[in-house]
Amino acid sequence: MLDPRIRIVQGDITQLQVDAIVNAANRSLLGGGGVDGAIHRAAGPELVKACRPLGGCATGQAKITPGFRLPADYVIHTVGPVWSGGGKGEAELLASCYRQSLALAREHGVKTIAFPAISTGVYGYPLDQAARIALQTVQTFLQSEAQIETVFLVCFGQRAYETYRQVSRELEAS
Ligand code: APR
Question: What is the pLDDT of residues 8-39, one digit of tens each?
Fold first, then answer.
């Protein structure tokens, strides 16, 4: 049974009124395209200024900054793996992005958090496999977690939303 605190939604993560949104960043943490670009645009120039002293972020790790002009109080920047066929530990690195982001959220008293579909854009991770990792990793984390009340998995577009819903049904049935 999927934890009811997990909510699969469709939309633009920069507009969500949550305590923290997660950014699918690159290792420089200095911005980019995709959701990274959207978050930096919405947060304003203070975001990249806050990222600069962090010294980047390794793949699978996460770092936190304020959200500045975003509705969210925090941005948790995590760096997903680039898909290279599945034989280079991509699955574990992607799971680590979710785990590390949730652990950081807990440390900062975050109750509501939203994730994009990390690595499924520029980094080429197959959407269904990434969705399964996201759902399973969040589910496992929540089993020993009481502070976090809602985890939104934000799908940008109909195809992503339907894939997440389908994977969620498969996990419920398994
Ligand atoms: N809200 C929610 N999800 C979004 C948004 C948005 N505003 N914009 C894009 N997405 C989705 C994409 O559709 C994709 O499903 O975020 C997911 C992740 O795609 P990318 O943003 O391309 O991130 P990723 O695949 O992890 O690649 C990271 O891309 O933008 C650069 O600087 C970033 O180098 C890094 C790389």
Answer: 999 999 999 999 999 999 999 999 999 999 99
Verify whether ligand 1 is closer than 6 Å to residue 161 (CB atom).
no
Q: Which residues are catalytic?
A: 36
Q: Is the distance from the beta carbon of residue 45 to the nearest atom of ligand 1 less than 6 Å?
A: no
1 belongs to a structural domain = no
Q: How far apart are CA 41 and CA 27, in angstroms?
A: 18
Q: Is the Cα dihedral 105, 169, 128, 94 positive or negative?
A: positive
Hey, what amino acid is at 136?
A: Q
Q: Tell me what percent of the residues of the chain surpass a pLDDT of 70.
A: 100
> What is this structure's pTM?
0.98
Domain assignment present for 100: yes
Pocket-testing residue among 35, 41, 155, ligand 1, by greatest number of atoms within 8 A of Cβ: 35
pLDDT of residue 1: 86
Domain count, the chain: 1
- Give me ligand 1 centre to Cα 117, in Å: 7
What are 106's two structure tokens? 């807990």
Does residue 41's CB lie within 6 angstroms of at least one atom of ligand 1?
no
10 Å CB burial of residue 146 (0-12, 13-18, 19+) is exposed
Cα 35 to averaged position of ligand 1 atoms, centre (Å) = 4
The domain of 97 spans 6-173
Q: Is the pLDDT of residue 173 over 90?
A: yes
